[in-house]
């Protein structure tokens, strides 16, 4: 479950000097049983704007959710597997269950077969999606485009899905900002 993503967190000592507070594997990782091979590593979460710089505790220790907290952000690294092995058998109930297992059943876009992809979803966020390795299709209601390593998507609350039609995993970094 989850890739071994190293997270280095900085902070300040008692004298106000910059230090490394922690250095290790992201403490929160999860998968989605309905999407075999999918994994997500929660890197960091903020709970307000402006963000509290030296907030105590582990910010990723929260209920599972695609979206950030109100007025907050979330940064995660996601591995999206090739979908050929499971996409043809993915029905509406299984897709809904996938989003529910991620703590975000309300993000799932209900459909009756007329959507371009069974995992279409929408959140009230501005998302920065950066392809780190591999390739993936960004599928929208009326268009799609192939993204490759180094490409960046600015996702502004639109209905969408991620479709990996290749034979290799695609790794992406996502920074989600709460929106209205």
Give a description of the structure.
By secondary structure, this protein is mostly beta strands. The chain has a single domain, classed as Jelly Rolls (Sandwich), CATH 2.60.120. Helices cover 6% and strands 41% of the residues. It is built from one helix and eleven strands; from the N terminus they run E-E-E-E-E-H-E-E-E-E-E-E. The strands form three sheets. It has a six-stranded antiparallel sheet, with no helix packed on it. A three-stranded antiparallel sheet has the order 8-7-10, with no helix packed on it. A hairpin with a 3-residue loop joins strand 7 and strand 8. It is globular and about 60 Å long. The mean pLDDT is 92.
Number of domains: 1
Q: With helices defined by DSSP (H or I, 4 residues minimum), what is the helix count?
A: 1
Average of per-residue pLDDT values: 92
Residue ranges: pLDDT <50 for 5 or more in a row? none
| CATH architecture term | Sandwich
For the largest beta-sheet, the strand count, sense and barrel status come to: 6 strands, antiparallel
> Mind telling me the C-alpha Rg?
17 Å
* Content-based structural category: mainly beta
Shape: globular
Distance, first to last CA: 32 Å
List key phrases describing it.
single chain; six-stranded antiparallel sheet; Jelly Rolls; globular; mainly beta
């Amino acid at each position: 479950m989850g890739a071994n993503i190293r997270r280095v967190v900085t902070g300040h000592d008692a004298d106000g000097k910059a230090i490394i507070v922690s250095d290790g594997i992201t403490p929160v990782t999860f998968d989605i049983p309905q999407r075999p091979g999918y994994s997500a590593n929660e890197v960091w979460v903020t709970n307000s704007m402006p963000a509290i710089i030296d907030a105590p505790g582990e910010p990723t220790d929260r209920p599972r959710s695609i979206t950030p907290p109100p007025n907050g952000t979330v940064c995660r690294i996601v591995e999206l597997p090739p979908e050929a092995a499971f996409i043809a058998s993915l029905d509406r109930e299984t897709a809904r269950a996938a989003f529910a297992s991620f703590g975000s059943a309300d993000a799932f876009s209900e459909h009756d077969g007329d959507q371009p992809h069974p995992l279409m979803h929408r959140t009230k966020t501005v998302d920065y999606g950066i392809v780190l390795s591999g390739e993936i299709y960004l599928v929208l209601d009326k268009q799609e485009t192939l993204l490759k390593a180094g490409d960046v998507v600015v996702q502004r609350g639109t209905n969408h899905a991620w479709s990996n039609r290749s034979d290799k995993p695609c790794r992406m970094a996502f920074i989600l900002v709460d929106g209205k």
